[in-house]
Amino acid sequence: MPYKIIGDTIPQPLTGTPGDPARGRELVLARTTTCILCHSGPFPEARFQGDLAPNLSGTGNWWSAGQLRLRLVDASRFNPQTIMPSYYRNDGLVRVGRNFAGKPILSAAEIEDIVAFLVTLRD
Amino acid sequence: MSSWRAILVTALVATAPALRAGEIPSDARRSGYTFMGPDTRAMQDDDTANPGMLFVLDGEAMWGKKTGTAGKACADCHGDARSSMKGVAARYPAFDKATARPVTLDQRINLCRVNHQQATPLPYESRDLLALSAFVAHQSRGVAITVGDDPELKPFVAQGRDLFMQREGQLNLACTNCHDDNFDKRLAGSPITQAQPTGYPLYRLEWQTLGSLERRLRSCMTGVRAQAYDYGAPEMVALQLYLMSRARGLPMETPAVRP
Asked: Model-level pTM?
């Protein structure tokens, strides 16, 4: 799915259908999505949350949907040294495991769901 | 500056290996043991509770048993392991003159089996190989790691360091991102350690068995969704060599216990 970066955002959604915030919340909490390996957030039911990255509470206060979309698609645009994976990229990677080769970590629809959820995280 | 001080400073500069950015200074190096809870530590400390000791006992029995068409036991060549094997694991992987490459302790054991006992090599991660290597490494418990001196090993240590620094896999993370830059933090529920290889082979509660350093490295590689190197691959040996040289000065703990 091609996308266009403007400034520090991807203003246009990656899919035609709007993201579903409830599904986005489930995805952020799913271990296979990897977010809470590093991040914590307002997730009282999740026992194990990481502390390698900022707490996600209040994300929607500070970031627009367009900024969050670019952050998820390619966090290295914000910080070239970041440890946060680029979730929508499949080039420039080294020794990707056989089961994961040639595909991004998340699909366009999953990214839209997560963006739709993150913008609801307001204090 | 008086001349004796100048000499002292020069000597220090000449002998202290230069520390590169992101590397852990020698007085800040910590075994995985220091990251564990009291229960797991107690299990490691008490030989009667440490499940790894069962493997050490099996290894001791194998040490004395004649094998292969040569009809020789390890003990026939090496005698009492308590003296002949003391400190050996603390300097492996070591340079092998015949192949001009570093070999791991597991590979050395198999070279002895093939060349001196005329027996078949033991498969990686087999119970017998783990037992023998646990028994040999146990003789170095408390001995400080010395790997990294040998000038012939230099290019291989450098290769291992490059692999440690290389981002890889779908998650695009390098060993250094977690083990140099983020130890003491938590990846979900697990404390991230400095990846000091002091206790291998070790008993992991998650595995419910003893496992080699290579098994641990392969699970970190799979964790970042990279294609793990095969057991015994040159890259695997180089990484272990770098890790051991990075752990210089730390005492061996085999068989350690980890969560």
From this structure: 0.93
Residue B51 preceded by cis peptide, ω within 30: no
Best CA proximity match to B236, nearest among B123, B102, B87, B95: B102
Q: Is the pLDDT of residue B15 over 90?
A: no
- Record the tokens describing residue B164, joined without a space: 């440690």
Give the Cα separation of A7 and A27 in Å (integer): 27
* Segment A10-46, tens digit of pLDDT: 999 999 999 999 999 999 999 999 999 999 999 999 9
Domains of chain B and any CATH numbers: 3-46+147-249 (1.10.760.10), 52-138 (1.10.760.10)
Residues of A in contact with B189 (CB under 8 A): 47-48
Q: What is the ipTM score, two decimals? A: 0.95
- Residues with Cβ within 8 Å of B213's Cβ and at least 6 positions away in sequence, in order, are B197, B200, B201, B240, B243
Q: Give the pair of three-digit tokens for residue B51.
A: 């499940």
**Is the CB of B185 less than 8 angstroms away from the CB of A31?**
no
Token pair in block for residue A48:
């194990």
Decide if B172 contacts A100 (C-beta within 8 A): no
Beta strand pairing call for B202-204 and B257-258 = parallel
Active site residue B220: yes
Q: Using CA atoms, how far apart are residues B214 and B255, in angstroms rounded to an integer?
A: 15
Give the active site residue among B77, B175, B178, B220: B220
